Amino acid sequence: MEYFSREECKKILLEKCSFIYRDSAYIATTDNNGKILKSKVNQHLLNSIIFHTLQLSDSCKLAERMYWILNDIYEKPKCKQCDKFVSFRSFNIGYSLFCSSKCSSNDKDWWKSRTEKSIEKHGVPYFTQTQIFKEKSKAKKKEKYDDETFTNPEKSKRTKKEKYGDENYGGFGSIEFNNRLIEKYGDKNYRNVPKWKKSYYDKSDEERKLISKKRIETKKKKYIDSDGRFHLNTTYYSKISQILFWRIYDKLPEQLKDKTYFGELNKEFAYYNWDIGEGYFYDFVISSIKICIEYDGEWFHSKSDVIAKDERKQKFLEDRGFKVIRIPQKDFERSRPEVINYCLEEINKLLKEKPLL
Question: Is-above-0.85 flag for pTM?
């Protein structure tokens, strides 16, 4: 049996085949009244198309075979990131560019294209940053959990534990993260120290002292206010801690709000310890009654060097007459209302005991 050549199949399809329905190609014609009539493509053409696309499996759809003919494809496309074959989506779209979401997320061009489209359509790089998404998310959480800021880190850990065998999967210190460090650098404890730090520590003790002295003088000129306090805006704070602080702030008496400091409200309250050349940022401070609330994230505040600095930081503030309350992350996640009420009770006690400064 003689088949149509590949070029002849393409020509017939372009001229006569109007659309594809399920696994059958149809030729559309009209009668004298303009009514559309359908008739299937003849069997000889179908056999020819199958003959010229034998590389495809027997179970593949006719739409994919026709796509090969019309677009002059001779080999099944592969993923841009790896050598795996990609799946056929539809006759109008064709093949996927990537075999999985993991591969697509690793492609810089794909991310660039996606963010450009999102900026053009929504004005922001990602749809999750739009006000519409945020409002819908809050409404859904409010309806489901009666709390528009609800998060469930314990459930996330359980899911990761069940799926990957590691509750910190993908994050800093996880098995996967350590394996990537070993594969790339040969050491799971590898940390990429910036060049300026390397050059700084390569210098002699005298040179380092001079550099530190210059830094202190620069900070004094830039950041010292009329009260002798060291102020510097910072964005290095936990987002969940700001939820706690906003809840407390909203319930404060008006007379305390003007002297309240935390990241998202204005700036974190800060002091500089000139004796040892170390700056301290405090999470939530009401300076008029001298109270400070510190939110201790489970991961960051469990490091030995951070614990040591937290102790120095707390002592420095307590020496100046402040009361410091520490809120561990687990306590806040376990019972938010109780933690908020406890903080407000301590603030009210101090407000009664101390006159406003």
Answer: no
Band (pLDDT 50/70/90 cuts) for residue 333 is confident
DSSP, collapsed to helix, strand or coil, labels residue 320 as: coil
Domain count across the chain: 2
Q: How far apart are CA 290 and CA 293, in angstroms?
A: 10
Tell me the average pLDDT across 13-35.
54
Question: Which one-letter amino acid corresponds to residue 72?
Answer: D
Q: Tell whether 244 is covered by a domain.
A: yes
Is pLDDT at 272 greater than 80 in this prediction? no
Among 75, 103, 122, which residue terminates a domain?
75
The CB-side HSE value for 153 (13 A sphere, CA atoms) comes to: 13
pLDDT reported for residue 227: 45
Q: Where are the alpha helices (DSSP H) in 187-238?
A: 195-202, 205-223
Q: Is 26 helix (H, G, I), strand (E, B) or coil?
A: strand
Q: Are strands 291-296 and 323-328 parallel, antiparallel or unpaired?
A: parallel
Q: How confident is the model at residue 229 (pLDDT cuts 50, 70, 90)?
A: very low
Residue 161 domain-assigned (yes or no): no
Question: Could you give the angle at the alpha carbon of 50 between the alpha carbons of 53 and 79, nearest 5°?
Answer: 30
Please, are residues 256 and 347 in contact by the beta-carbon 8 Å criterion?
Answer: yes
Output the pLDDT for position 231: 46
Q: DSSP label at 321?
A: T
CA distance 137 to 139: 5
Interstrand relation of 24-30 and 36-40 (parallel, antiparallel or unpaired): antiparallel
Q: Is residue 183 within 8 Å of residue 189, measured between CB atoms?
A: no
